[in-house]
DNA sequence: ATGTCAGAACACTTCTGA
């Protein structure tokens, strides 16, 4: 089965591209980020027409996550992370589909750093780590799929120099990402491409796509029970080059 | 020379966030 994470950068602006992707690739499960839409603006009819069920957690203007499943409706387990009652951002949605737990994650960007947005990012990562630890304790197959807004290693970016002051690459962000992996999660893309140099995001600006100036920030983390079933992982890079594309490409794993 | 998008509003142009 193919499980995808795809930051669409606006579900209403991207619905034609998304339906095209679903039709062509027929993924089994898709985690979406950056819906940039309230719940009542989510184009569920178009998604149903494409043969998918969905659970979504929207928000006006920004953020927003969803989980789609082919031919079925995901069963919601949790929306939002514990640990901050003041946090209104729609960034975490956890569902179950046929015994597989899947969470759609939109981790805070954190720029500019230092500053309150970076502080929020780091605290959010700590809260995610708490949830991730609880999920591992369940000893079931889990996929944490999303835009983590973290460039884990130097070979996960076209240019360390260009990104050195960015929140995506700060030691504090990387330490927390590494700590998450150290709990027992497998970074599926890293396992498949240990040499790095695989991008999931290319900025709209400065001809980044044309220059292949990208980086890897969309990740699929697998619990041991899911990692045992890992067959393949990759990026559907071609979709980044299409008309009206998102700045992210769909990123996926295949599990047995 | 921050060169592009998407969404929203004191809205048809400018701002914010990424």
TrEMBL record:
Superkingdom per UniProt: Bacteria
Cofactor: Mg(2+); Mn(2+)
Keyword S-adenosyl-L-methionine recorded: no
Record's cofactor remark: Probably binds two magnesium or manganese ions per subunit.
Any matching Pfam family: Exo_endo_phos
Active site residues of this protein: 106, 147 (proton donor/acceptor), 248 (proton acceptor)
PANTHER family linked: EXODEOXYRIBONUCLEASE III (PTHR43250:SF1)
Protein name per UniProt: Exodeoxyribonuclease III
Higher taxonomy: Bacteria, Pseudomonadati, Pseudomonadota, Alphaproteobacteria, Sphingomonadales
């Amino acid at each position: 089965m193919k499980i995808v994470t795809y930051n669409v950068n606006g579900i209403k602006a991207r619905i034609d591209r998304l339906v095209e992707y679903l039709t062509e690739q027929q993924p089994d499960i898709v985690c979406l980020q950056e819906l940039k839409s309230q719940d009542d603006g989510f184009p569920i009819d178009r998604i149903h027409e494409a043969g998918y069920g969905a659970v979504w957690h929207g928000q006006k203007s920004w953020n927003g996550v969803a989980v789609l499943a082919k031919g079925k409706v995901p069963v919601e387990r949790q929306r939002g992370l514990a640990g901050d009652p003041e946090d209104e951002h729609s960034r975490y949605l956890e569902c179950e589909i046929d015994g597989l737990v899947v969470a759609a994650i939109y981790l805070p960007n954190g720029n500019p750093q230092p500053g309150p947005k970076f502080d929020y990012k780091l605290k959010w990562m700590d809260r995610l780590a708490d949830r991730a630890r609880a999920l591992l304790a369940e000893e079931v197959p889990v996929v944490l799929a999303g835009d983590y807004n973290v460039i884990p290693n130097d070979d996960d970016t076209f240019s360390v120099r260009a990104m050195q002051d960015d929140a995506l690459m700060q030691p504090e962000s990387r330490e927390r990402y590494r700590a998450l992996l150290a709990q027992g999660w497998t970074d599926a893309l890293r396992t498949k491409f240990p040499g790095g140099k695989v991008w999931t995001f290319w900025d709209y600006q400065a001809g980044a796509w044309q220059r292949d100036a990208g980086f890897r920030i969309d990740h699929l983390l697998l619990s041991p029970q899911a990692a045992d079933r890992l067959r393949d992982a990759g990026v559907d890079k071609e979709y980044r080059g299409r008309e009206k594309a998102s700045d992210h490409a769909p990123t996926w794993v295949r599990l047995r």
